[in-house]
Specification:
This protein is of the alpha/beta class. Helix content is 47%, strand content 16%. It contains twelve helices and twelve strands. The strands form three sheets. An eight-stranded parallel barrel has the order 1-2-3-4-5-8-11-12, surrounded by ten helices. Strands 6-7 form a two-stranded antiparallel ribbon. A two-stranded antiparallel ribbon has the order 9-10. The chain is globular, with a radius of gyration of 19 Å. It starts with 6 loop residues before the first helix and ends in a 6-residue tail after the last helix. Bound molecules: glyceraldehyde-3-phosphate, 1,3-dihydroxyacetonephosphate and zinc ion.
Length: 322
C-alpha cells in the first residue's frame, strides 16, 4: 500500500468508535518503533512531522524514512502529516513534497483570519489530493516557538465550529478541551491528590466536545496534547539523573472515552520522548563502558514500539482496524 490520506481512516474510526494515533517522528528509530508496533497489531497509523522535526532532520530524510516504513509495512494504511503548519508556504512545501495530510494551525489568530488562511490551504491541498486539519481554540504548552502559559489557553467555542468547517472546507478539526502540549500539562495547584498522594488533573471538558459533535455530526475531531506522561517512566528518568518534577499528563481513560466519541485522531509525542529518554538514561547508567550508539538506541527503539503498542491496544482501540 502506498501512503494514504486520512479520509478512509477517519470514516472507519468514526463509525467504529476508535481513534487513529498520530505520532511525531524525528529520526529512524522513532519511525521504526511506531510502524513496527502498528504493523504487528494491524493498525492504521499517522506519522506526523513538525516544523521543528523538518529543521532537525530535513524534509527529504524524514520523507524517505517514512517511504521505507511504508515499504516494510505494506499491509497497514500509513498517512504522512504535517503537524502545526503555521503558514500557507510551509503547508504548500509539504504538499509538494509528498505529504498526504497537512495541518494549518492559525488557532491563535482572529476567527476570520483563521478561516481565510485555512481556506487558502484547503484549496491548494484538495487540488493536489491532500487533506487538511485545522484548529479552533488554543492549547496551553509549547509547540515549536509558540508557548502558551497554563491558564491562558482557551477552549474551543462550539458555536463557531459549524461556520468554520463550512467556510474553510477543512477535513478534520482540532479542538481545545483541556489537553495541552508537553510533559507538564497542569500546574500542581490545578490538580487534586488521590488517596495515594498522586496528582489528579482536572477532567477534560467533555461538555465542549459533545456540543461540538452535536453541531458537526459525522465530522472527524482531533485531540492534540494527548500524552499521558506515564509515571513509571518519569520515575526512571528521575532515578537515573533526570529532573522532571511534577510531570503530569492526560489520564488514559479520558482519551479512550474521547476515542469512542467523534475523536478520530489523537496526537502523541511527549510519551515517545519520555520512553526513549528513560530507556537511554537507564541503559547509560547500567552500562557505563558502552559507547556504540546502536547499543542504547536499540532498547530505545523497542521502548517506542512498546509505548505505541500500548496506546494502540489500550487507548486508541485501533488494533486490527487496518
Ligand atoms: O506539538 C508539538 C509536537 O510535540 C512537536 O514538537 O515542535 O518540538 O517538534 P516539536
Ligand atoms: P503531547 O505533547 O501531549 O505528546 O502532544 C503532541 C501533539 O499534540 C503534537 O501535535
Ligand atoms: Zn499538537
Amino acid at each position: 500500500m502506498a501512503l494514504v490520506t486520512t479520509t478512509e481512516m477517519f470514516k472507519k474510526a468514526y463509525d467504529g468508535g476508535y481513534a487513529v494515533g498520530a505520532f511525531n517522528v524525528n529520526n529512524m528509530e522513532i519511525v521504526q518503533g511506531i510502524t513496527e508496533a502498528a504493523g504487528e497489531l494491524n493498525s492504521p497509523v499517522i506519522l506526523q512531522v513538525s516544523k521543528g522535526a523538518r529543521k532537525y532532520a530535513n524534509h527529504t530524510y524524514l520523507f524517505k524514512l517514512v517511504e521505507a516504513a511504508v515499504e516494510e509495512n505494506p499491509d497497514i494504511p500509513i498517512a504522512l502529516h504535517l503537524d502545526h503548519g503555521d503558514s500557507f508556504e510551509v503547508c504548500k512545501s509539504c504538499i509538494d513534497g509528498g505529504f498526504t495530510s497537512v495541518m494549518i494551525d492559525c488557532s491563535s489568530m482572529p476567527f476570520e483570519e483563521n478561516i481565510k488562511i485555512t481556506k487558502q490551504v484547503v484549496e491548494y491541498a484538495h487540488d493536489h489530493g491532500v487533506v487538511v486539519e485545522a484548529e479552533l481554540g488554543t492549547l496551553a504548552g509549547i509547540e515549536d516557538e509558540v508557548c502558551v502559559e497554563a491558564g491562558n489557553e482557551s477552549y474551543t467555542r462550539p458555536e463557531e465550529v459549524e461556520e468554520f468547517v463550512t467556510k474553510t472546507g477543512c477535513d478534520s478539526l482540532a479542538i481545545a478541551i483541556g489537553t495541552s502540549h508537553g510533559a507538564y500539562k497542569f500546574k500542581a495547584s490545578q490538580c487534586t491528590r488521590n488517596e495515594k498522594g498522586i496528582l489528579v488533573p482536572p477532567p477534560l471538558r467533555f461538555d465542549v466536545l459533545e456540543e461540538c459533535i452535536r453541531r458537526i455530526p459525522g465530522f472527524p475531531i482531533v485531540l492534540h496534547g494527548s500524552s499521558s506522561v506515564p509515571q513509571e517512566f518519569v520515575k526512571i528518568v528521575n532515578q537515573y539523573g533526570g529532573n522532571m518534577p511534577d510531570a503530569i499528563g492526560i489520564p488514559e481513560e479520558e482519551l479512550r472515552h474521547a476515542a469512542e466519541l467523534a475523536v478520530c485522531k489523537i496526537n502523541i509525542d511527549s510519551d515517545i520522548r519520555l520512553a526513549m529518554t528513560a530507556t537511554i538514561r537507564q541503559y547509560m547508567a547500567e552500562n557505563p563502558e558502552h559507547f556504540d550508539p546502536r547499543q542504547y538506541l536499540k532498547p530505545a527503539r523497542q521502548a517506542v514500539k512498546d509505548m505505541v503498542a500500548h496506546k494502540i491496544k489500550n487507548v486508541l482501540g485501533s488494533a486490527d482496524k487496518a
